[in-house]
Amino acid sequence: MTKVGVIGAGIMGCGVAQNLAQSGLEVVLLDVSEKILQESRERITNDLRFRSLFNSSEILEASDSIMQRIHFGTDYSLLRDVDFVVENATENWEVKREIYTIIDDVCKEECIFMINTSCISITKLAALTKRADKVIGTHFMNPVAVKRAVEVIKGYHTSNSCIHAVEKFMRRINKEIIIVNDYPGFVSNRISHLFINEAAFVVQDQVALPEDVDAIFRKCYGHAMGPLETGDLIGLDTVVHSLNILYESYQDSKFRCCPLLKKMVDAGLYGRKSGQGFYVYP
Ligand code: NAD
Fold it and tell me: SUPFAM superfamilies, from UniProt (predicted)?
């Protein structure tokens, strides 16, 4: 059976681990503390419970047997025999740099590394390893279980056989892929973060309230969500990290992070995950 290591048990790591386990894959979910892992166990269990409320017509596998395919831990040696790694750790170069240095030594030679990042260069992370041909970007969308497509990013050295293996992997978990080349932020976040950032400037300048900014995107442009709701969903801390990376990477002032976003993050307003961002979540 294919075994997958999932690194980082935050918003994305939990979503990915759950999606893989629901597709019948064996998962090792790693994070830095038992406390975080306990929270992630509860988050996944709750999501699986909700799933049965929304899918009354389908025959669903019992949540317990899905959970049995997820093994939680903090020790990287658990990744010794995995076939793929999906890394979803904090959007910070130093954090990811340390992880790739470790897993390149621990994981078997043929293991493929999938990087789930918002903006960090796939080529630059791949260069930390001795297997750059087997490193690829897989930008899953949030919430993972609901979104049908994944933005797949080809690093400079990513091989065709790696792309084929990832295509097959994504088919197995019922995801369509859209392949793009590697530049920080790829297609999705290079564009979407400009919207989110400028929307924050609009609120900072008191041009409009958050609900009115988002209403214009939903009701006038027909978007499913406005930029500020999207920022809250992603996590404003992750948005700020991503904007800083885009700014640094392109040396272009259009990516300068809005001071209001920084202030909100300093105040602990991370969006949905902390209960408050541009909106309050009960
Ligand atoms: P998050 O803050 O919710 O979770 C990150 C997790 O990584 C935390 O639980 C943290 O403890 C863990 N972590 C940190 N250092 C670690 C280490 N050395 N080993 C193992 N775990 C470690 O962040 P998130 O929103 O889940 O984002 C994770 C990644 O996915 C980021 O790179 C982000 O840019 C990307 N991403 C996020 C979204 C989104 O909507 N939030 C969407 C697509 C991609």
Answer: 6-phosphogluconate dehydrogenase C-terminal domain-like (SSF48179), NAD(P)-binding Rossmann-fold domains (SSF51735)
